[in-house]
Amino acid sequence: MSKLDHINEQILHELTRDGRISNLELTDRVGLSPSACLRRVQEMECTGLIAGYRAVLNRSALGIGFVAYIGVGLRDHSKASQEAFERAMDRAVDVRECHNITGTIEYLLRVECADMPSYKAFHTDLLGALPQVNGITSYVVMGSPKDERG
Questions:
Q1: What CA–CA distances, in Å, run from 112 to 26, 96, 118?
Q2: What domains can you pick out in the chain, each with its CATH number?
């Protein structure tokens, strides 16, 4: 697929809002025949434009009441230090996202846990105990008026 046209953009918008939408409902929303719509979706899946579908979870129903973004600075900028930190974050169940970023720090994390005491345990016992970590800055989420993550 060389470029996205307006109809494919509409299809992607609708699938982003509801990945379980039926093909018939999708055709009504984008104005295509069922076969043409299905063909476009399958093409976007085959080319990798649509990489997958996922469930959107109700965090509070899962007992997750605390979300924070954390800026992490490392002691040194070596490949070994970065790889060790990334392995530790991959194993940390509370870490939902780990991004290597540019700027004054090396990493931005999104952490989800039950409450402040469980966050403190993560902050102190896991993150603060890593020898690669030089600095930690926490940004506690008070609300999310717009959140388009899956």
A1: 33, 7, 10
A2: 6-46 (1.10.10.10), 66-140 (3.30.70.920)
